[in-house]
Design brief:
Protein name: Energy-converting hydrogenase B subunit J
Keywords: Membrane, Transmembrane, Transmembrane helix
Order of helices and strands: HHH
Structural class: mainly alpha
Number of helices: 3
Distance between the termini: 63 Å
Largest sheet: none
Organism: Methanobacterium formicicum (strain DSM 3637 / PP1)
Oligomer: single chain
Number of strands: 0
Strand content: under 5%
Length: 91
């Protein structure tokens, strides 16, 4: 079983960039809990399974680049997607 690194790296980089752009809006009252990430990852794996591998690839029965993009979105959101609130200065 051979893994092709190109689609996985490209998918992860694109997903990381997209995930870093996700910001929480306090007015919308939407929260990203751990259950949201888990459901997103499960659905991404199901979609990747139905997409199948890239043409002429024999590494896995799913689109590994698609799963890597989903993981990149989660990592980008967790690492760079958070708004940092400025600390209050006391007089």
């Amino acid at each position: 079983m051979t893994f092709y690194i190109g689609p996985m790296v490209l998918g992860f980089l694109l997903g990381f960039i997209l995930g870093s752009r996700i910001k929480e809006n306090p007015e919308s009252k939407l929260k990203f809990d751990s259950t949201v990430y888990l459901i997103f990852l499960i659905i991404a794996i199901l979609v990747a399974y139905f997409l199948g591998p890239f043409p002429y690839y024999q590494d896995a029965p799913l689109a590994s680049g698609f799963v890597a993009a989903a993981v990149g979105i989660i990592m980008g959101k967790l690492i760079l997607g958070r708004d940092r609130k400025p600390e209050k200065l006391e007089d």
